[in-house]
Amino acid sequence: MALLAAPLSQAHALMPPEAPLPWSQPASRADCPDADGYLWLPLDTGDVCLRYFASAGLQGADTAIVYFTGDRDRLLNTPPAQIPANTAQAQTAAMDAFARQAGLPVVMLARPGTYGSSGDHRLRRRLVEEFVPLAAGVDLLQRRHGIRHLVLWGHSGGATAVAALLTLGRQGVRCAVMTSPAFDYLERWRMNRTVGGPAPSVARGQVLARAMYDPLAHVAGVAADPARAVHVMGDPRDKVTPFVLQAEFVQALQAAGHRAQMHQAQAAPPMFHNLREQAGLRQAAACARGG
């Protein structure tokens, strides 16, 4: 969706970096200044304010990693002051640590409804509510900071967001790295019920799936780019996002002529969902360097 033309507002007071970030709030221009760390997006589907937290060295970077966290639904009923690392200060420090490991700048773009971004995280995996705002946010982030090349990295629901951005035709991505992404939601939940993984009731799942955007069903929208590498990583024992569906997404990309690889990785028990030893970050850094 295109940004609507709108005059820039006067800069508003910035949130103190140590203040708890708000969750699940509507977009407010008064709380979204034209400043680093904030992205005001007057989309034709409604106003959005996304927060981002960047390591040093982002401005004018030749290559930067843009990171999307996994789902945070278990935190939705937690007071913001009690959510771990829920400050700009803490998130920026985390990105500085990632950047030291990766050897290039890293920025976390907060998904709608989380870590200060406007929206409702309960409406994740929706096109209008999540994926369109994130696509516009990446556009503005890249323009504002003059970043030449992007590496997109996401985990779990954040990895599904990376896949969605590709299917929406995003170009100029050097690498896309997805760890433990979710696809084919009805089949995912059916499989999860057999292994004790997370799944709604059958009836509720059918309602949710109709409202959600599944990147696996939209591979035709991925832009051709022989220079782009796509890496999907998962543990075959994953009880949250089945490995076989991740492999199906890779196979669909390959069949469409894209450079895509499926990697088996080790994840932590008992759910085997969160990969060990920063596997996603290491892959993103290696891919950025041409590996």
Short descriptors:
single chain, 291 residues, alpha/beta, 7 helices, 31% helix, 17% strand, globular, disordered N terminus
Give a brief outline of the structure.
This protein has 291 residues and is α/β, with parallel strands linked by helices.
What does this structure look like?
This protein is α/β, with parallel strands linked by helices and 291 residues long. The chain is 31% helix and 17% strand. The protein is built from 7 helices and 8 strands. The protein has helices at 88-102, 127-145, 157-167, 185-195, 202-211, 243-255, 279-288; strands at residues 38-43, 46-54, 63-68, 106-109, 149-155, 173-179, 229-234, 260-264. An 8-stranded mixed beta sheet has the order 1-2-4-3-5-6-7-8, sandwiched between helices. Strand 3 (63-68), helix 1 and strand 4 (106-109) form a beta-alpha-beta unit. Helix 4 (185-195) runs antiparallel to helix 5 (202-211). The radius of gyration is 18 Å and the shape is globular. Mean pLDDT is 94; it is low at 1-12.
Catalogue the unreliable spans: 1-12
| Cα-atom radius of gyration | 18 Å
Helix content: 25-40%
Q: What is the number of strand segments?
A: 8
Rough shape?
Answer: globular
Coarse structural class:
alpha/beta
Average pLDDT rating: 94
For the sheet with most strands, the description reads:
8 strands, mixed
What string gives the helices and strands in order? EEEHEHEHEHHEHEH
Give the strand line-up of the largest sheet: 1-2-4-3-5-6-7-8
Q: Note the total helix count.
A: 7
Assess the beta-strand content as a share of residues.
15-25%
Measured distance between first and last alpha carbons:
33 Å
